[in-house]
């Protein structure tokens, strides 16, 4: 078993995830895994970094596929005996002009952004080594979407005692409410992406609390963040930040020094903790 530290970035064959891997290759003292659901796209991305003189390793990972997540988990357990840095970056967004019915957009978006991310956490968080760092890439849109929720929902999403089960129930309820055409009446905002990212931010707050309860002595820090508005296939060419600039906050959180005890359980953008 290797004692080399190991970092994993989900959805990193392109966009912000790719830039996070690039930065970690330069700054993280260990093995860095670029992961992708499509091995061809993943290997191509690894080769691109190699041309820049950087060495990333590849492992397949489709966060929608529990078997794929478990295969990565078993690999990490066997080869490294755990994991030091996990960046949950993989995500999707329908284009504004997409004509798919809202209920379809809701189901598909939450499947990857919330439920896929949660499944990765369920399988990989138990592997986190002491002083591990976990970064869940959310979005400022989670904050604006929270503001668009009913007072009752806002209270639930801001609660310091909400459980993961309660959050999962609420995320499922959103999808069901869109199918019944009652999401408006039930207090949800008109953004499936926004609700999925509310899920990611609230999940991060819950997970940080659980780490405090169960593994306080291990000094693991877990945060949600927004990379900013970044020029990628998702956000388009008009966005203000380059992918490397978008990677800065996630990388800052992934490399928090071992004597840091904060931020933890926070929503961070531009390396600054934001109110939730
Ligand atoms: P992107 O260029 O579209 O890249 C998304 C990445 O996620 C791709 O590598 C994609 O793989 C991967 N992915 C999608 N579904 C996956 C799955 N089921 N399993 C594994 N990988 C999957 O988007 P981006 O702008 O870099 O976004 C990265 C993260 O930042 C997302 O979570 C996004 O919501 C968040 N974010 C972005 C912005 C922005 O302005 N760009 C702002 C706020 C937050 P494929 O190539 O196979 O599709």
Mean pLDDT: 98
Q: Order of strands across the widest beta sheet?
A: 3-2-1-4-5-6-7-8
The major pleated sheet works out as: 8 strands, mixed
Q: What is the top-level CATH class of the domain at 6-96 and 113-140 and 198-269? A: Alpha Beta
CATH topology of the domain at 6-96 and 113-140 and 198-269: Rossmann fold
Instruction: Catalogue the ligands.
Output: NADP nicotinamide-adenine-dinucleotide phosphate
Q: Would you identify the CATH architecture of the domain at 6-96 and 113-140 and 198-269?
A: 3-Layer(aba) Sandwich
Total count of helical runs of at least 4 residues: 10
Polypeptide structure, described:
With 276 residues, the chain is α/β, with parallel strands linked by helices. The chain has ten helices and eight strands. It has a domain of 191 residues: NAD(P)-binding Rossmann-like Domain (Rossmann fold). It has an eight-stranded mixed β-sheet, sandwiched between helices. It binds NADP nicotinamide-adenine-dinucleotide phosphate. NADP nicotinamide-adenine-dinucleotide phosphate binds next to helix 1 and helix 4. The site of NADP nicotinamide-adenine-dinucleotide phosphate has 33 residues, from helix 1 and helix 4.
